Write the structure tokens for this entry.
Amino acid sequence: MHHHGYLWIGPKQRYDDEALRRPPPTHPPPDGSRPDLVLRHREVKAEFPVVDLPPLETAYWLVKPEKLVRGTWEECKEAADWLGERLGEYAVRFDSHSGRDRGRLAMLVESAAAQLDQGRDVSHGCYLERPTFLSLALVCCSPNRSLPALPCPVVGP
């Protein structure tokens, strides 16, 4: 098993577009459905796999393009350290003063390493200066515990 890191930063309003953050239903709207529903289903089906927005379910990062992977690690600690580096990098911009606490950030990194070691994905999000939102994720791959059928997004050498 290995781990992929993902980072998204952008307007909170865009982050809140949940339709593009969840996989489309497996079946299209039934015949006779309102045209706007049919159109929205087509849009989500086409956009979900390629849009850079963080998926609602962390494992679905694995269906996104390889170019969105910010790093890949075999060791849980190395992946968690990447998370800690990103949190430290953005901490000065955190909207909450308590979120900048070094002890709290260290606990998040330790917790991330432990979760990854158990095969669990890790996801953190926080406001930077409003209305900007930061989303960080570490996803277990090959296989992912919650969605084992998802393939690794990184093409081998």
About this structure: The first helix runs from residue 12 to 15. The chain has a mean pLDDT of 93.
